[in-house]
Amino acid sequence: MSATTADTHVFDVREDNFEAEVLQASLTTPILVDFWATWCEPCKTLGPMLEKLAGEFNGAFRLAKVDVDKSQQLAAMFGIRSIPTVMLVKDGQIVDGFQGALPLGQLREFLQRHVQPLDGAADEVEAAPESPEEAINRIQQAIAAEPERAELKLDLALALMRAGNADAAEAELSSLPANLATDARAVRLRSQLDLARALKGAPSLQELQQRVQADTGDWAARDLLGVRLLLEGDASAGLDQFLAILEKARDWNEGGAKKRLLAAFTTLDDAELVGRYRRRMASLLF
Q1: Catalytic: which of 10, 22, 33, 40?
Q2: In what order do the strands lie in the sheet with 93-99?
Q3: What are the pLDDT digits (tens) for 15-56?
Q4: Residue 89 catalytic?
Q5: Which of the residues 22, 43, 53, 257 is marked catalytic?
Q6: CA neighbours within 13 Å on the CB side: how many for 16?
Q7: What pTM does this model have?
């Protein structure tokens, strides 16, 4: 967790050098302050990501690491109640911050609101977002560290669903307290789980695509292909499959295509996309 002296963008800080290395230094370069501890599980996830970003941004900000066990006065001065806690200091003032271990993509977004990578920064600044498996590991560590935060169980359910583990996602969803059970994300996840049940024992994405290419009127294959595409992140392509059935075989499976479209709309958090496909559905029905 501690910074290496070879990395000029990351350094350890304590009470005796905080004013010079953070407050004074922030007058020329923003300083990101990471309050952490060796026993903190989420810190073990967050710390390496922050160090990676410090290198990627190539000096646009510097990362100051504060071990709260060794610098208790500093932690008290900033009112640190839980770790990890991260604060961004510019011009001698705290301008933003957050608690907990955010995904890499959100960390980049946080930083880019305040600083931009300098010339020569690593191309990885636009690297791929966190994978579902990485998200599951991060959230499970956060739950272990802060079991009282019930909202983390919803985050875990969503990550499990993205990883294709519908049964585990449903178990987490069922254990949510009442105030979170009606959260918009929980409602969307229930709709996704309803769709996912149709895929139990279903052919692979590639096999379904081959079946549709071989027979464009294989409505059962189109239906399952639409569900797979939708749940695997290609919403437009999935909705197109349902529309194709609606256009050519409206009454197939007792109006199954219309039912799929309506169910799919409840899973999507994209009002523009849903509106566009609702209009296309209406144009075929009326």
Answers
A1: 40
A2: 10-12, 62-67, 31-36, 85-90, 93-99
A3: 999 999 999 999 999 999 999 999 988 888 899 889 989 988
A4: no
A5: 43
A6: 1
A7: 0.53
Place of tokens 């149709």: 198
The first and second tokens of residue 248, run together, are 């050519």
Q: Is 268 a catalytic residue?
A: no
Distance CA 14, CA 16 (A): 6
- Which pair of structure tokens corresponds to residue 219? 């409505």
Contact indicator for 244, 225 with CB cutoff of 8 Å? no
- Give the strand pairing for 31-36 and 10-12: unpaired
- Give residue 159's region: left, alpha or beta (phi > 0; psi -120 to 50): alpha
Please tell me what DSSP assigns to residue 13.
-
Rounded CA-CA distance 206/158 in Å is 25
Q: E-assigned strands of 3-55?
A: 10-12, 31-36
